[in-house]
Design brief:
Radius of gyration: 17 Å
CATH class: Alpha Beta
Low-confidence stretches: none
Shape: globular
Order of helices and strands: EHEHEHEHEEHHH
InterPro entries: Arsenate-R_ArsH (IPR014063), Flavoprotein-like_sf (IPR029039), FMN_Rdtase-like_dom (IPR005025)
Strand content: 5-15%
Protein name: Arsenical resistance protein ArsH
Pfam family, one: FMN_red
Number of strands: 6
Mean pLDDT: 93
Length: 206
């Protein structure tokens, strides 16, 4: 039986530091939508996060990111497409989240939705890269995704998204993420229980 006792906890990461960042505006619109569905949402602000390797993981911003990742049941990654791929801003955040910290896996078993914005025609390069990263980080990436072309045309001055087929897709993505997160909630331990990891914990077993 699925556990609906508390709302899904969703973390949002975005890939731009611009004052009017469309990847952040898209993430904020998505957060409003899934919050209205009943989810609890938090954002990580990537400003002041050092480059991976510059400092140790005891740095305050790194610890904040790791704690938010551990808090989350699902995540949403939103990136501009830059030179046909995700931005270094988003990749740096993901680089700081390892597959394992002691006995804790910061992303394994969490659901993931991917979204991108483009300044020109619609593209799927960034979301495809994020799917690869999600798989590598052992997350359950939902089938649906959002790609917003000519993003500068798709938002009101106050940052909210204009009514369009692009926004309809964002609603679809958030609804799907909400459902997958709830449905997988009580099954994550079973689905992520792997032979190789059990063997590593008990090296004498065959």
């Amino acid at each position: 039986m699925t556990n609906f006792d508390h709302p899904p906890r969703i973390l949002f990461l975005y890939g731009s530091l611009r004052e009017r960042s469309y990847s952040r505006l898209l993430a904020e619109e998505a957060a409003r939508i899934i919050t209205a569905m009943g989810a609890e949402t938090k954002f990580f602000d990537p400003r002041e996060l050092p480059l991976r390797g510059q400092v140790t993981d005891s740095h305050a911003k790194v610890q904040e990111l790791l704690e938010l990742s551990q808090w989350s049941e699902g995540q949403v990654w939103s990136s501009p497409e830059m030179h046909g791929n995700i931005t270094g801003i988003l990749k740096n955040q993901l680089d700081w989240i390892p597959l394992e910290v002691g006995s804790i896996r910061p992303t394994q078993g969490r659901t993931l939705a991917v979204m991108q914005v483009s300044g020109g025609s619609q593209s799927f390069n960034a979301v495809n890269t994020m799917r690869i990263l999600g798989r590598w980080m052992r997350m359950f990436t939902i089938p649906n995704q959002s790609s917003v072309a000519k993003a500068y045309q798709e938002f009101h001055e106050d940052g909210t998204m204009k009514d369009s087929s692009y926004r309809d897709r964002v609603v679809d993505v958030m609804e799907e993420l909400y459902k997958f997160t709830l449905l997988l909630r009580d099954k994550v331990d079973y689905l992520t229980d792997r032979h190789s990891e059990r063997k590593a914990r008990t090296p004498d077993s065959q």
